[in-house]
Amino acid sequence: MADEIQIAHHTATGANLYAVIVNADPESADRGKWWNAVGGAWEVMAVANWADYAIAMSESPASGYRYVGAFPAAIALGWYTILQFTRAGGAPAITDAMIEPAVDRHWDGAALREEGKGISQALAVLLGKQEHVPATGVTTNYHRDGTTPAVTQTLTGGGNRNAPTLG
Questions:
Q1: What does each C-alpha distance from 61 to 54, 107, 151 come to in angstroms?
Q2: Count of the separate structural domains present in the chain
Q3: What pLDDT sits at residue 117?
Q4: Are residues 137 and 83 in the same domain?
């Protein structure tokens, strides 16, 4: 695999960037663990292993402000959080500055895909937490975080949906 992790870093060319991957898949027993790129396995984050989590990113093309890195082929299909950092010293350190907000991406074995809002709402209905209040007839489906509403709808007599609200 190559160049699945990408970032446009408009503030500097020739920067030393790296990415780390955190398992965000709700179906995974390794959810919340960090990918150790040296050991090739998920683990509970340990500060002493920070440099082992780094996936090097190179500028492509040279002086092009676009940085790319390879998503590890050993990682199973699923949802992952990718964090990207500027390396300040000779080796990655936990004190390095994160340059972009963390992003959730779905790894399909060949590419990282961004979750669209419609897909997010569909997944919330199919797989997420659902809450129904019988007194009001209101049903709410939550995003993967379990707290943010994705779809709220009122069930009328006979179980019909009335004016769903998409979050």
A1: 21, 24, 43
A2: 2
A3: 47
A4: no
